[in-house]
Amino acid sequence: MRLAKLASLVSALLLSGTLSGTALAQSKVVTEAEARALHQQILTIDTHVDIGRGYATHLLDPGGFTKAQVDLPKMRAGGLDAVFLIVYVGQGALTPEAYQQAAATAENSYQAIMRMIRAYPEQVGLAKTAAEVEALHAVGKRIVLLGMENAYPLGDSVKEVAKWAERGIRYVSFTHIGHNQFSGSSNPRSDLNDAEQDPGLSALGRQLVAELNRYGILIDVSHMGKKSMLEAIKLSKAPVIASHSGAMSVHANLRNLDDEQLDAIKANGGVAQMVAFRSYVAELDPGLNAEISKLREKYLPNGWANANEQDRNSYDTELASLRKQFPDVTVAQFVDHIDYSVQRLGIEHVGIASDFDGGGGVQGWEDASETLNVTWELMRRGYTKAQIEALWGGNVLRILRQAEQVAAKRQ
């Protein structure tokens, strides 16, 4: 209850303009033309974008307009320059057989991303360093960076880190939903017999911190339990990233970061990327929640991964219709999280993420084609060009460079 009351109070203060200096200019009039002119001048990096089933095949060709929230035409339309595409594996059992299967899943995701890059070399390139991001942007290409969500497929050692570093992975989140061999999760799973409390980093998890530092890979603290996250930050010699999280003080959700966690990221020199994921941003309308539950029972009784294409499409179509019938979470509410974090941490420790194609999206930023709307909302609140540049990518490039420098000293 105390968290809920605090979140309500902070939201009210943000809306009234009494908490954040930037929020005081919320009523500033900015035309779309003015927003577009500024947006086109800055490098925009979305630090968390998932890939769908059949990615870079005839089932989902990101070179054309697709049902996915991110593809190359939508990136061009919305002025989204760079994305971290994610090698994701859901949490499973901690057994040799399960590790092997997880490694195979990670390999399939990586190969899918590389197929896309090879298919459209004139449009997009893979960046492994901050300098490569800037070089690709300078010649007008879209940019792909790689992140690994859940270290689970690394198995029972850290030997595979070197391979993934060479391939271009530039951040690794230790966990997803459920504790694993490295760390506690912010969302333990009873079906995996997880302890309710975060157990903290394991001995292997502490090894992973050092190995990621050694290879210039950012430690991603999103999805980590608080105890594990604070331990990782204390051990890391390089800045960390929360690749897609929200501010707990704006909206209470297990996936969001409380003030102590945000402060730890600042003290480390890292960046907290605020995420446009509805349920992390604000409370969903109760009526909408009830209708979504019915849709899931109807079309996704065994989860998204086990549903056929027809049921997935029906779910998406009916969900889009429902969102028009009920009050929705908006891009303005998303920017409230940015406002709060900037006020607490300073502009240099905050960034922007969507979690598109992994559940992300809010009204006004439903897919990459609407990316301009985030910049537009920031301008309405009085953020300057330099501040918007920092939020959209400058801060991420800084910590990438710092991680590279730490790695150079440790090789």
UniProtKB/TrEMBL annotation:
Transmembrane segments: none annotated. The keyword Signal applies. Keywords: Signal. InterPro entries: Metal_Hydrolase, Pept_M19. One of its GO terms (biological process) is proteolysis. Gene3D superfamilies: L27 domain, Metal-dependent hydrolases. CDD domains: rDP_like (cd01301). The keyword Signal applies. GO terms for molecular function: metallodipeptidase activity. This is Dipeptidase. Residues 1-25 form the signal peptide. It comes from the Bacteria.
